[in-house]
Write a structure and sequence with these properties.
The complex is a heterodimer of chains A (477) and B (243). Helix content of chain A is 49%, strand content 10%. Chain A is an alpha/beta fold and 477 residues long. The longest helix of chain A is centred in the first third of the chain and has 20 residues, at 21-40. Chain A is globular, with a radius of gyration of 26 Å. The radius of gyration of chain B is 17 Å and the shape is globular. In chain B, helix 5 (72-80) packs antiparallel against helix 6 and helix 11 (185-200) crosses helix 12 (212-224). The chains are: A alpha/beta (477), B alpha/beta (243). At the A-B interface, helix 1, helix 2, helix 15, helix 17 and helix 18 of A face helix 1, helix 2, helix 4, helix 8 and helix 10 of B.
Amino acid sequence: MKPVNQVRNALAFLEDQPHHEQAFDTLIWGLRERRDAAAREVPEWEDLRTLASRIKEHTLSHLADYLEQFEERATANGARVHWARDAHEHNQIVYDILSAHRAHTLVKSKSMLTEECQMRPFLETRGIQVTETDLGERIQQLDHQPPAHIVGPAFQKTAQDVAEEFHRVYGSDPGRADPVYLAHVMRERTRPLILAADAGMTGANFAVAQTGAVVTVTNEGNADLSGNVPGLRICSVGIEKIIPGLAELAMFIRLLTRSATGERITQYTSHFAGPRAGGEMHIVLVDNGRTQRLADERFWPSLKCIRCAACLNTCPVYRRSGGLAYGATYMGPIGLITMPAADVRRFRELPFSSTLNGSCSNVCPVQINIHEQIYAWREVMDADGLFSVTKKAAMKAAGAVLSHPRAWRAAAEAGDAALKVLPHFAMYNRVNAWGRHRDVPSTPKETFHQWYARNRGDARPPAQTPAQGEDPGHDRP
Amino acid sequence: MIPCYIDMFYPEVGIATLELLEKLGADVDYPFDQTCCGQPMANSGAQAEARATEELFVNNFAAYDHIVAPSGSCVHHIRNNFTAAVDSPERRHVSARVHDLPEFLHDVLKVKDFPWAEFPHEVALHVSCSAIRGLGEQAMSERPNDPFFSKPRSLLEKVKGLTLADFSRPDECCGFGGTFAVTDEAVSASMGNDKLERLGATGARYVISGDMSCLMHLQGCAHRNREDFHFLHLAQVLNGSAR
């Protein structure tokens, strides 16, 4: 598959008509501001982050024990636990459960894991009708788009966009773009599907080893309807979602909702502990590359993620690129460091869609060193030979000039140094990329170096000081 | 240490830095064979290509007590990401002894005032991401319970006549990001223009920063938009060379 070109996709978002960038930036930055206000209310906020990070590190480093404990408790509660090595196994397990019950309709709440596994198309091609019940996710499903944000899948759309979409799909009033009306339109259309569904599905925000319960944190109540109305319930859980017990859960809830939306708590925190009377509950524990990432010394901390999307909300690149530009299940900073772990060739450009400003790491409620991992992934792309030929050549040329004083002086003091040297650093993808929206700095009459030589007396030419371990002969023109 | 882009495009910033340190009584040397810290290659992931440049830097600077640069971004690289060069006591020495100019003035020289400096203008201070989150020169907006402090701001407050204008999203990235400015030019320019809008909303026409690379980007955006801003490095104001 061709590598995702985030840069080109972001350009399309920036130039789209009608223009969405500003509304998107305002909405998403608003979440960041609400998060700040919520964090300010909790004097021990930074201590909580440290503690949450340590709990996740502890759990991840004892993952097998906690998973077995969870399985034991969940089984004792009457649930059936399945283990899936990868996305395909997950989808097959879900399909097998459904076909064993002759289930043809499935309602589900939002689950990034089922997105990751591409479960919907898998089931649909096998004759299962899958209905998303989260409002944002349903909006995206009806528009044949993946989620644009981890917490609010349709954040990229304005109310007017949704009004037009619902008009197209449901024949509702295209002139009424108020969210309450639109939510009612959706409710009227979706409720009957929930009531008639053969099976219901949820993801998991947490899986509690102590109780064997799957916990979801939502506002719309759709997870509770999806999980409780049909007799057959399936919960898909990434194995990194395990936490030890209820005491830890209480702490993560405090961090999760405040980090995500600035709310102290959501409307519903639901514990799915066992099947409802007369029903069945299946839990699918999914690895899909997580064990392999856990073994990676540099990148395992990304498994601490609790999917709050605070890193997206703070990321100035995400807010100006749009969520779909990443072509990925996980977008924004967390996507930059998790998607290449899933498919390094396809997502090789993603780690470069960052200014390395570090804001993401500092909002992360579990202290993932996101920007340091972005930096490290860039090294991996080079080490794995995934730089383009022109990029590699540009880096070699820059490295050669900058490691040799005489060559550097010649470049810096050439006429029109601005045009010659500035682009030299990185102008390997498009001619005069700097100059499309910006002017280049004017070149002064003399460099600092020349001024210093003239004013501080030492006018000797640069010595040929080679770098350590290098052949001094390389310096000669 | 004079960063490559300051040497080439902004010699007046290098001169102001040198003169300021001399006024404050420091014994300043300018190693003649310096080029660059290696960040353009290292930030791009090209460790092998950064190695010789980083090692040249180590050779040039290992003998000094303090290495001072008017660039948070370069100092962040040298202090926190100097891993392309072979590990050696010299490499660790330069990483440990490198200071961004505001840090050196604030923490090492503990400068109380700049009697020669006067700047009777309202200014907007842009502190770079490297200086804030890489070097800890200023409290971060992401940590709202930390007490506020800002080393560059406290230095500017010592300048006669100068007033500081506050603007929204003060520590959002300006969009420069090194090679990002070229590889992701559209998003980069969009971020730059947003930053200019917030700076401009204060009414201040002077934008001051300890990082000339951010300003080079913002200046490029402003110039293209025909906006009337003056961009100055902190050193030019503290040295009294801009009035």
